[in-house]
Amino acid sequence: MIRVLIVDDHAIVRKGIRALLFESGGFEIVAEVADGQAAVVAAAEFKPDVILMDLLMPGMDGIEATRRITDQQPGARILVLTSFAADNKLFPAIKAGALGYLLKDSSPEDLVRAIRQIHRGEPALHPTIARKLLQEIVQPADLQPAPEALTARELAVLRLIAQGLRNQEIADELAVSEATVRAHVSRILGKLHLASRTQAALYAVREGLTSDGETSLDEG
Question: Which of 43, 128, 196, 213 is the most buried (most CB within 10 A)?
Fold first, then answer.
């Protein structure tokens, strides 16, 4: 039996996956949770064989949850199951430690196959995702992300990250919501192909982006 933890903020998705795996046979659902923080707790408690991880959830998102789980359990096998194929979700999720990345428009058979591959320690990627990763690999090795790719607001957020501010503190500084800051951070990590806030802070220091600048900019 492959022991599976389902992480998704939509109850109907969790119910559908549970029914599919029960019908397929050979799977045991050890827990279902609706957000990233609960996923971290459940992963530590149940030590599932495979974790199905949604990305966009309230509170802690799937990328941060993946990062925390793999930090605590380096051998954790996480399969991202999401509707998003954008680079700003894909690359941070893979760098955070996900072993597979599947889109929710995949067939039930593809999902079952991917879970079994992940359980064997084999990567499982949706064809669209595999193409994106191959394109990334064949880029010139000396091609580095440029700060010019960031908007003025994203640069402002990056500077505040480098100063050690948390999301709520950044939100207070910029007079925006914490959810807006989280969205900016996600886009920054995706555009720069970084896996964590720590890497983003180091990048800002290396690129000389930590000098004080105007941070009350219009959204953009």
Answer: 43
Residue 76 phi/psi, 5° resolution?
-60, 140
Asked if pLDDT for residue 201 goes beyond 90, the answer is: no
Domain with CATH 1.10.10.10 in the chain: 147-206
* Buried/exposed code over 33-72 (b: 16+ C-beta within 10 A; e: otherwise): bbbbbbbbebbeeeebbbbbbbbebeebbbbbbbbbbbee
DSSP, collapsed to helix, strand or coil, labels residue 149 as helix
Q: What is the pTM of this model?
A: 0.65
CATH superfamily of the domain spanning 2-137 = Response regulator (3.40.50.2300)
The CATH class of the 147-206 domain is mainly alpha
Distance CA 37, CA 67 (A): 11
